[in-house]
Design a protein that fits this description.
homodimer; alpha+beta; Fumarylacetoacetate hydrolase, domain 2; 2 domains; eight-stranded mixed β-sheet; 10 helices; 29% strand; EC 3.7.1.2 (chains A, B); Fumarylacetoacetase_C_sf (chains A, B)
């Protein structure tokens, strides 16, 4: 049986998700401790929750976490403590089911999805893989460069990814090569972490980086599936579109910033001065250790081990940059980091980097070659805080590759 | 008093919007004939609507048109006829208020917003303005190139646009110039037409171009406000982000495809063969005549007059390309054409083209120079079908430029 990751969900985690079961058929807000899924609308009927004087039970009966995410950090903190105490006193047992009996859903309604490119190593490696030179985007040292992604394609971990059809250059090594139509030959993953917006930021106001944590509800893992050949043809001049919009996977559990706070870790130092609103004396990432695996023919190969502390731009920077022009953020909006990559080869978070855009394969545990993903390959992405002993983690984000649709 | 555009809203239009008033305080579905706004939930209580055997009255009481847009074309067509007959028999009078007493809202909840670049002239003129050469994007002749835009920033005509703050190159004429932070100096408009998705397209299915009309509810005018300096720095490598995401304006009325059908007009011939799913023997645009105006110091100048028939890629192509990789479309999604531009200077739909990225100003009616928009400038965009005599049009899409926020 697959690992349930119970060790990620200790009493210090208390993540939030949306769950249903045969007993509780309506998707609703839940948390997880060990292998117990706790249904929060029922738990919030107890006095310790009523004392918080917010209509928690009805908020937790909603089919997304958007309303809860928008509540003040103060109330969310009280709820966290009340859940921990209800668990200690066994009060939560009556509102619980085993993880194996429960179906998990997308945790929030995502009104807008932004994907940044916040890693130094990723931008340099991607530049080398695509253009043969290690060069920063012109703005890289001033702000995280990002683009808007597709909301309708975001699914929760476990959904299979169908190889997309599209148009691309038949052989990118041949100048002026034909553009053909067919199933992508360059299917890739991108291992990312994403922030879920809590308290909204009104359009026309803006945030300083140092104040942005107030608007982050928590983090998820995210796999930004990418078709490199389809993407390659469309990048000039408008950026990623069909090369990315066919699917994006996230973990079902949102780990709150409060759970992550004890595991803050300094971000890399600034290489160039930044604008005042981007200046963050306490520039921090979180000590999240990430592992990427490819499962082929029943054999598991680890393709990546990297720490989130490597990211040059932090979520505070990403959110400040996002709002400075007047763009509003709504509760539930997703802001992703871009591929997490370290400077070592085993720290590369996508195949574009690891196989130099498919040109230099790696060998998997079953002795087969990996350039890009093949039909039947499964990608598993796991994130845990610190050395794994503190009981805080994200579980896994998985998806198996299905063959392209028949035309 | 401003033109109410009553002549755009004849009996052959029957557009849909969301309206409220002091008498009818809840925003709800409405149509417009002449200067009368007809509240449809009330009208649908009459027998002629009940015969359609769809719960129209409750659908029209919703705060967006998403549910109505998703209904079959057959039902929508019956509703159109019933509205026209109710008007002729004066039945609609009791459910009507004057346009001057009514507030109009965003007509749909927009789950995803896509912006294409479908005009030959726009891509060549923009290439020349930015890079000094008239060159097509590599994929241009195979499919419309597009990117995802920001949903939270879409507002209905009339909302002012605040000049965005951002980071950009101080003087793009000087190589390796400083990146500075401040109010944009390159605020521009982009005159576009956008399709509103009706019947959804499920993720993982796909559409042939020739079948895509089935999924288009109707069209709106759209102003894709752009800050060229902010956008210029961020284009490499991920495309438009803060240069566009501060605001997008649309008209409050969605003109249905059924109203536009008699005004189909051939799109330009293909310059290169296309993939089979993109092949559309009846490649059509609509005979929509567009006018762009800048109002400064009380004086009106026409900056653009162009026909929508100039667009190389049609909405059918845009939607087919959108779905081919597996991306789903939901009712209410917005798919915009990109700047509409003809080959003559007076047909250029943005200042990037008209003033060569601010380098060659034009002279307005008040003798002042226009390079980019100044604080206080108002942009008005009007669209009418055919020569204006057929009673079908979009009204106007307007917004006035407010000074940048103080830091």
């Amino acid at each position: 049986m697959a690992d349930s990751y119970a060790s990620h969900f200790g009493i210090n985690n208390i993540p939030y998700g949306i769950a249903s079961s045969s007993k509780r058929t309506a998707p609703q807000c839940a948390t997880r401790i060990g292998d117990d899924i706790i249904f929060l609308a029922e738990l919030a009927e107890y006095d310790s929750f009523k004392a918080i004087s917010t209509p928690l039970s009805s908020i937790f009966r909603e089919t997304t976490l958007n309303t809860f995410a928008a509540l003040s950090k103060d109330i969310q903190s009280k709820v966290r403590v009340a859940i921990q105490e209800a668990h200690k006193s066994n009060l939560s047992k009556k509102c619980s089911e085993s993880v194996k009996d429960v179906k998990l859903h997308l945790p929030v309604h995502i009104g807008d999805f932004t994907d940044y490119s916040a890693s130094v190593n990723h931008v340099l490696n991607a530049s080398e893989a695509v253009r043969g030179i290690r060069e920063y985007p012109p703005a890289f040292h001033k702000y995280p460069v990002g683009y808007a992604g597709r909301c309708s394609s975001i699914t929760v971990s476990g959904a299979p990814v169908r190889r997309p059809l599209g148009q691309f250059i038949e052989d990118y090594t041949v100048p002026k090569n034909n553009i053909i139509f067919g199933p992508s030959r360059g299917l890739d993953y991108e291992l990312e972490v994403a922030a879920v917006i809590g308290k909204p930021v009104e359009s026309g106001t803006y945030l300083n980086a140092k104040d942005a944590d107030e608007h982050i509800f928590g983090l998820v893992l995210l796999n930004d599936w990418s078709a490199r050949d389809i993407q390659g043809l469309e990048m000039n001049p408008l950026g990623p579109f069909n090369g990315k919009n066919f699917m994006t996977s996230i973990t079902p559990w949102i780990v709150t910033l409060e759970a992550l706070k004890p595991f803050e870790i300094p971000a890399p130092p600034r290489m160039q001065p930044v604008a005042e609103f981007m200046d963050d004396p306490k520039s921090i990432n979180y000590n999240i250790q990430l592992e990427g695996q490819v499962l082929r023919n029943g054999t598991q190969s680890t393709t990546c081990k990297v720490g989130f502390e490597t990211m040059y731009w932090t979520f505070r920077h990403m959110i400040a940059h996002h709002t400075i022009g007047g763009c509003g953020l709504r509760s539930g909006d997703l802001v992703a980091s871009g591929t997490v990559s370290g400077d070592q080869k085993h720290e590369h978070g996508c195949l574009l980097e690891l196989t130099n855009n498919g040109k230099v394969p790696i060998t998997l545990s079953d002795e087969s070659e990996l350039r890009f993903l093949e039909d039947g390959d499964e990608v598993r992405y796991i994130g845990v805080v610190g050395d794994g002993s503190v009981g805080v983690g994200f579980g896994e984000c998985v998806g198996v590759v299905k063959p392209a649709r028949q035309l």
